[in-house]
Amino acid sequence: MDIRLPSLGEGADSGVVVNLLVKEGDAVQKDQPILELETEKAVGTIPSPVDGTVQGIRVKVGDKLSVGQVILTLAGAEAVAPAPVAPVAVTVVATPHHVPGLPVAASPTVRRLARELGIDLNRIRGSEDGGRIGVADLRAYIQQLQQMAFAPQAAPAKPAATTERVDFAQWGPVVHKPLSALRQTIARRMGESWTAVPRVTQFDEADITALNELRKKYATAYEAKGARLTLTGFALKAVAATLRKHPLFNASLDEAAGEIVLKEYVHIGIAVDTEHGLIVPVIRDVGKKSLLELSKELELIAAKARDRKLGADEMKGGSFTISNQGGIGGGAFTPIVNVPQVAILGMARGALKPVVRDGQVVARLMLPLALSYDHRAIDGGSAARFIVDLVAAFENFPEAEARV
Q1: Is pLDDT above 90 for 320?
Q2: 163: in domain
Q3: Which of 37, 111, 118, 274 minimizes the number of CB atoms within 10 Å of its CB?
Q4: Which residue range is the domain that position 259 belongs to?
Q5: pLDDT for 97
Q6: Residue range 290-301: mean pLDDT, rounded
Q7: What sign results for the dihedral spanned by CA atoms 190, 195, 198, 201?
Q8: Catalytic positions, please?
């Protein structure tokens, strides 16, 4: 039995093999992982759908696989019926959507009409049960072709100057390293955000001297509970409390509908720096969790992010993002809004600074904060009020919330 790459979920139709977990002659069981695949969103394992013995492996590390492509062949495996394909809208596409090597599901009438009209059924998505193509699907496809044929043609865009390829080797030795799927996704999303979002950054500093003493006071108690008490944990609580006062920063802009979507949940993304690139897992319902629960979850998602074990669902649904570079160092920076969110908080490394308190110059631990926001949805006055309240949340963090 040939084992093929199954559906990878919403928005993903291909991936790169990063690790083979079996070899020829291995006995595998149903649901046993057989390889690790890197998609645009994460690295995940692909399980075997049946029991059997590996007779032949059809892929190698580095291969790019598409849904339906054969991964390996199992001996002694019983065939399993493929899962039904959910109905989808008909669309004109440049590449086939059906599994390679299998006939398209369509009635004899549809096949005859397609032959007479010279239409490739592989280019049509069927809306009937199991993805079967009906007469209505064929008719809709023809109408789309007509619309495309008679639509006014725009003048070809001139290529940007930056698209010109340069032979850097003419000046010395170079090494060509292909971009990973994750790096390409980061580049695309950051480019889209930079182009689409008129971003403004509001800066401030929070005096976290008392907060840091609170962290030291309870750090041992948290370690006894299997957690590390960090500044990011406090930041999650402070940001969640501030978002409740300023719900516009926990929203998204729906330009098509002309609406602001205000979210009643607080799901905060945490930017994690990994050797593979920036990954942003999401902690859900932050305002409903204790500082201890958040501290444990922070450690878990950070480890999963570094090991590329995050599932796609663990990186979806964020309503606000925090990027804490304090552990690395450096000064203030301007974070880029994580579209479709409308705001992001950047935190740099805290430092002792001379400040005036009650007419006296004293040393205080000051935390640089940078709030970037989408100016289409948020005005400067709103951003200033948000960061003032956020600073207050850091500086007046209630000790009761830190106790375990």
Answers
A1: yes
A2: no
A3: 118
A4: 199-401
A5: 45
A6: 96
A7: positive
A8: 375
Domain match, 265 and 136 both: no
Query: Does residue 95 sit in the same domain as residue 23?
Result: no
* Averaged pLDDT of the chain: 83
Instruction: Identify which of 22-36, 323-337, 376-390 has the greatest average pLDDT.
Output: 376-390
Domain boundary among 20, 55, 75: 75
Give the number of domains in the chain. Answer: 3
3-class SS string, the chain? CEEECCCCCCCCCEEEEEEECCCCCCEECCCCEEEEEECCCCEEEEECCCCEEEEEECCCCCCEEECCCEEEEEECCCCCCCCCCCCCCCCCCCCCCCCCCCCCCECHHHHHHHHHHCCCHHHCCCCCHHHCECHHHHHHHHHHHHHHHHCCCCCCCCCCHHHCCCCHHHHCCCCCCCCCHHHHHHHHHHHHHHHHCCEEEEEEEEECHHHHHHHHHHHHHHHHCCCCCCHHHHHHHHHHHHHHHCHHHHEEEECCCCEEEECCCCCEEECEEECCEEECCEECCHHHCCHHHHHHHHHHHHHHHHCCCCCHHHHCCCCEEEEECCCCCCCCCCCCCCCCECEEEEECCCEEEEEEECCEEEEEEEEEEEEEEECCCCCHHHHHHHHHHHHHHHHCCCHHHCCC
Boundary-marking domain end, from 43, 75, 107: 75
Residue 12 belongs to domain with CATH number: 2.40.50.100
Question: pLDDT tens digit string along 71-102?
Answer: 999 987 665 544 443 333 333 333 344 644 44
Query: Does the pLDDT value for residue 11 go beyond 80?
Result: no
CATH number of 139's domain: 4.10.320.10
The residue among 234 and 68 whose pLDDT is bigger is 234
